[in-house]
Amino acid sequence: MLDFTKYTLDNGLDVIVHEDHRCPIAAVNLWYHVGSKNERPGRTGLAHLFEHLMFEGSAHHDSGYFAPLQKAGAALNGSTNCDRTNYWEVVPTNALELALWLESDRLGYLLPALTSAKFENQREVVLNERRQSYENRPYGMALMALMAALFPPDHPYHWTTIGYAEDIRAATLEDAHAFFQTYYHPGNASLSVAGDVDTESVLELVRRHFEEIPAGSPIPAVVTGDEPQRGGPPAAVDTRLLLEDRVELPRLYLAWRSPRLFSDGDADMDLLAELLAGGKTSRLYRTLVYERRLATDVSAAQGSREIDGWFCLMATAAPGSELMELEQVIGDELAALADAGPSEVELQRGLTQVDVQFVYRLQTVGGFNGRSDQLNAYNVYAGDPGFMARDRARYRSATAERVRDAVRQLQEPGRIALSVVPDGAVERALPGSRPAVVS
Amino acid sequence: MIGRVDRAHMPEPGRVPPTRFPVVRTSRLSNGLALKTVEHPGPPVVTFRLTMPVGSASDPEHAHGLAALTADLLDEGSTERTALELHAALDGTGARLGTEVGADSTTVTLTTVARHALQGAGLLAEIVATPRFDTSDVGRVRDLRRSRVRQLRAVSSAVADRVFLGTLFPGHPYGHLGIGTDTSLASLTPAQVTAFHRDAYQLESATLIGVGALTHEEIGDAAERTFGALPVRSPASEAVVAPAVLDAAGSPSARLVLVDRPAAVQSELRVGHVAVARATPDYHALQVLNVVLGGQFVSRLNQRLREEKGYTYGVRTGFDCRRAPGPFAMQSSVQADATVECVQEVLSQMAAIGDDRPVTSTELEMARAALTRGFARGFETASQVARGVASLVLHELPASYYDTFVPEVEAVDADAVTAAAKAHLRAGEAVAVIVGPADQLMSDLPALGLGEPVRVDP
Prior knowledge:
The complex is a heterodimer of chains A (439) and B (458). Chain A is of the alpha+beta class. Helix content of chain A is 39%, strand content 19%. Chain B has 2 domains: 25-242, Cytochrome Bc1 Complex, Chain A, domain 1; 254-456, Cytochrome Bc1 Complex, Chain A, domain 1 (2-Layer Sandwich), CATH 3.30.830.10. In chain B, a hairpin with a 5-residue loop joins strand 1 (25-28) and strand 2 (34-39).
């Protein structure tokens, strides 16, 4: 669906170029195959904190990266999740070389410029990001409680990417240097350039800027507690947890472990999420919000990640209703779908919704989820930037039986039910819930 | 042979490629409805955007939330179809529907794949022109919005926004959030919604914008076949807030407002005042001024409070230029123990940029470049282009506006920025709203010199 050229430098850096000449801009997008899954207990949050440090200067431009790029008319940002860290710039085409010069300088020459002062400053910024986006936000700690319950302590999805505050406080400059030396290698990276560019010129520019950077050592394998030599995954049991929070309305989260990204059943879970809670005609919206008015909102998502997945349903109790009623209705709807499977009309609606996303996703060349980001995602996770067609085919081949199989997996043991209730209203949690520990 | 890169010298970007805003074709449908179309090659997507110059500033005094409730109810069924039937039709074409209610305008947008342009335009026309407003649906959606208002009481940023507008604009149509209050929503009736729709959603003052991977003729044909037979009448004058009422912003009700959020780890801050209308001749100078002060990452306030002090994840400032003077606001969420220092810093920077710390040549060059060189990427998608066209319509800007934007910004010099700061930034009149832990903050607040804090409930 997207034309591209892929080239791998001798040092292992994958380079992907995609031409699109409609708008005189160039998108630079660089993925490092490292995320919070590569952290160790006691140093959670380090991958994300490190991402911040990448904007603070490198040996040959030892000051903030935003200044030269914003002056060139760029938009830029970065993000970290459990599996990868990405960095991107969208620049007018005349500034492509500047963006590549800067990206290559922070890959090749970061550490001489990475000082204690920068580290201490960004540690404070990250602690404030954590306060703003999680601690001081309603329901903001729910994901941490869910991940900690779904995955055992030695599984790298046990903690969330923002990390624990005490770990962020405990991290040292030496930890940051070691993290860079271990994970920021050309061979652990994928660079994509898209937009109003010429493929040959881009390849030459990339070689000139990146070939001099040494390959580095292989990346240590990620260890999960699920591996057979470590005893395998823990026995699946249903768990009920509660969290008190500064919220007005109780909210129920139901979560299960589910197939990992691109594995069998992953696409079916995506489709199931759409049938359950995508739009106003979906089963749960119709029943809970539209007809019975028990909930103010409902959502569902398959969190497809590299080494594992999770499926999550979420519904907020309307004034006058209780989480037990929501749980009951959701259980009934899941049972009905597991019993009879989706109708043909329903399945087609879901397939249309999922399929049309592949069109809407093509509209931007850069930034989060733009074409350059998608090419890197397919390259890193599927080993093929051109995986989009096969990705789309996974959904197009879905059947009612496959969706029914997906929903039946949600009836197996291993469900986490998290009740988030207003401070002091523990009696509004599902019966038998024990307090979740988050910090 | 590939040469080695010169690390001693960061590359200087060469000439920025010339860009032009795409051609907008203006016409009228056979019923007189204004139509603007743009051919936007690329992925097979089309977006239709109907924009009307009536927003939440036109909420009647005791019916705050009416404009937004009306907009929210548009897709809850039409005279032809129930809500579920309507959404089944939307879903069947993969369409995305959005409504936006601002203070001055209401916009309904439908985006779909290009081959469904006709069905998409038809659904948009049905949704906008013939909503059902069934009593039961009005009650259901009103209750959902009341629940939302209730939940927003726990969201610091929403509380800060509400209190800030209320303090800046007491008794003025800009003084409330579009969603309204629990009390006002509770009083709204289906009859009021029906009347507001009848009076305000008239097509005489509306504009339909179509942008997509189709020709002008194809977009126009879809528009004509769906909107072309609808009645085009003027909005009832009593349904739309009068310009004289909008222009009469009074004085703020307080200089310092504190909303207690016990034990909160951060304070949510708003600092600002009523500033300037969109029609100001200083518009471009204000954009440059704002970039320098707090409009982007590399700005005085973000550099100081985030990159030097580490007190916050980020700071932003903005002039909300509306049809009548709207707010200038700094917004940030800062660690609680730095609250007073942050407010002081903002007030001092607001004062200094028009006085003893005027914009430097480096800052000026950076700000102008950020605005002009980044211009092209703002119009990459059909939705971005449609939004740009809608902005021209709403603010009655000349068709040449986007073509003159870059030279206008390049013409802004340091004196113009200083003059704009002197004219439109008034630190001495600024209001500060703090949503944070009162018991930690109270003893330090007198240092701000803004008088006794007025306490407001969340």
